[in-house]
Amino acid sequence: MRKTVVLSFLSALFFVQSNAASAKEKTVNPSSIADESANKISTTFNARITLVDVHGAPVTGGTGLRGYWAQNVVTGEYFYPGGQEDEDKFENLPAGTYTFGAYNGYWDGAVSKTVTLGSGNVGPDGYIVVALTYWVE
Length: 137
Fold this sequence. Notes:
The protein is an alpha+beta fold. It folds into 2 domains: 2-39; 43-136, Immunoglobulins (Immunoglobulin-like, Sandwich). It has helices at residues 2-26, 30-40, and strands spanning 44-52, 68-72, 78-79, 89-94, 97-102, 108-111, 113-116, 127-136. This is Carboxypeptidase regulatory-like domain-containing protein.
């Protein structure tokens, strides 16, 4: 009888210890949760279109372009600036890689450009400058 009680007690003790050890292994570190949620926060960027000629000099004066667009390379989603035809600023674009382009005029246009938005590209005014090469026939 004594042997049975001792073995039962040792079995119960072993069972409790093994469950306690697995519970410790499964506990979640609160700092790892904070790190994961910080990684899920989406970063947004502002981008501004500038036009340059084939030599890289800024284009001055009016153009016949009818507006600009940006397309997310991964999702295929299109984004448009402000709402005015001559608006050249994109606000709060989610982080990612985008192809920027312009709606061509009758005799002029701009070459599309693919850019990855990142904090290293942000200028002092808070915008990432995307230079599109302007052409005229």
